Amino acid sequence: LKNPWDLQTALSQPLNIVNGDDKIWIHKGVYNGRYISTLKSTKPNKFITVSAYKNDKVILNGNVKSNKKYVLEVKGKNVIFKGFEVTWLGDFSRNQNDANFKLVGGISYSSGADCKFINLIVYNNPGSGFGSWKRTGGKIIDGCLIYNNGYISKKGRGSGVEIYVQNESNKIRLITKNTIFNNYYKGIEVWSDNGKATSEYVKNVTLTNNVIFNNGSPSGVFKDNLIIGTNDRNGINIAKNIIVEGNIFYHNTDFAKNQIGGDAASLTLGFNAKAPIENVKVINNIIIGRNNALRILHAKTLTFKNNISYCGYVHFNKSVVSHLNVNNWKFSNNTYYTKNARTFRISKYKDYTFNDWKSKYKIDLNSSGKHIREFNLKNVLKVTENEFKKNSYRVILFNKYGKDVIVNFSKFDISNGSTYKIIDIENRKKVIKSGKVNRDTKITFPMNLKDFEKPLHNNKALKTLNNFGVYIVEFKIKKRSFFESLFNWL
């Protein structure tokens, strides 16, 4: 403690000094710089951990003079990065036309394998938030908060994504329990723009239990919360073996007024007709946007089950016609909220009613099509316990009319008299409510947050409407007496 390493020295330690099962603790404070980690573990199934110490607030600030293109670049194997912030502090340009603009991303995992990124906060970087590149098999991104990254390009458009994902290995890349919003461009891209690829490297990715919303907002145009595909004109690098399960995709939409107009894609599958996606499974997701919220552009083999879509039109590209049959596409138990009768639209080919769609292609036979005015969801969409931060929960709520929502925490064994505080994820510095837990362990969450109506990042980025909210609730648990514990057990 009296003679600690500086951060770059810690992240550069050789194998004989730092290896599997070792921990590097980072004490509280702001670490000004851009860093490269070359740590790696050579011990089978043993990880090095780089973590904020206990509950210390640790910030890596990349707003410094440097030629490095990321605040943190990782070149390593079997390392866990946990519990700190990666950002730019102070004043800096977000416009590529400015003379002082610097294009710098948050985190880049460029080489190595099997690193884990847990409970990190990656925000306000003038580039992409997280680059998950092809030569890094087996990576896990878990429980991270990623927002407000990106910039305005020279052409005046939003650029930079929250997470850019590639994978050439046969190991699964897992992206789970993350909260991603308000990026200048898209949310997650499982993607490659290479038009002349010679190998496959957009494959074997699982995205589960993420909430991704309002991406594109700071640039004034909503963009995909998730896109899966490639731009390979050789038909070699095809996005394949990808699972999208249990996620929530949202763009600001006034459901009470049946709002549907405007460009607000939420999920896009496929990009280039010569590289249609293969073996992609989209299961148990909520997909909310405007007219083109759900776009299935180029897909050879696709499973689409148990999803709820508020989308105006279900939009397809003409290229799907040759693949669109019950052997290649497995669609069932979906609910589509659309705006008129002929809303299954294959561009430049034909518009179908939902019944004609089912009859023609013999898919979606047990799914339902409804008008947007019927749209509603249960109030409590998800409550996820943070397995890496004790007594902390992410809560995702919905109320069509913006009314407060009651959440029951009884299944989490929170004792009567424990205290809590609620934080809106879009303004982490302000506690919007605090109190004590009653015996019924029910807490009322405010949805109509008038204090947050102003833009949160720039004059274009808007707060989510009061029909949708993502919160963090943290408890300070009161120890039970012997009799309380006995009563609870009984």
Question: Would you summarize the structure shown here?
Answer:
This protein has 490 residues and is mostly beta strands. The chain has 3 helices and 45 strands. It is globular.
Question: Could you characterize what this model shows?
Answer:
With 490 residues, this protein is mainly beta. 4% of the residues lie in helices and 39% in strands. It contains 3 helices and 45 strands. The longest helix has 8 residues. The chain starts with 6 loop residues before the first helix and ends with a helix. The relative contact order is 0.07. The mean pLDDT is 95.
Q: Note poorly predicted spans.
A: none
How many helices does DSSP assign? 3
Helix content: under 10%
Q: Give the strand tally.
A: 45
- Secondary-structure class: mainly beta
Globally, the shape reads globular
For the sheet with most strands, the description reads:
13 strands, mixed
Termini Cα gap:
47 Å
What percentage of amino acids are in beta strands? 35-45%
Radius of gyration: 23 Å
Average pLDDT, to the nearest integer? 95
Topology readout:
Blueprint: H1 7-10, E1 23-26, E2 29-32, E3 35-37, E4 48-52, E5 58-61, E6 70-77, E7 79-82, E8 85-87, E9 105-113, E10 116-118, E11 121-123, E12 130-132, E13 136-137, E14 140-142, E15 145-147, E16 151-152, E17 158-159, E18 163-165, E19 173-176, E20 179-181, E21 188-192, E22 203-208, E23 211-213, E24 226-230, E25 240-245, E26 248-250, E27 267-269, E28 278-283, E29 286-288, E30 294-296, E31 302-305, E32 308-312, E33 314-316, E34 329-332, E35 335-338, E36 342-346, E37 350-353, H2 354-361, E38 368-371, E39 380-385, E40 392-398, E41 405-408, E42 419-424, E43 431-436, E44 442-445, E45 468-476, H3 482-489
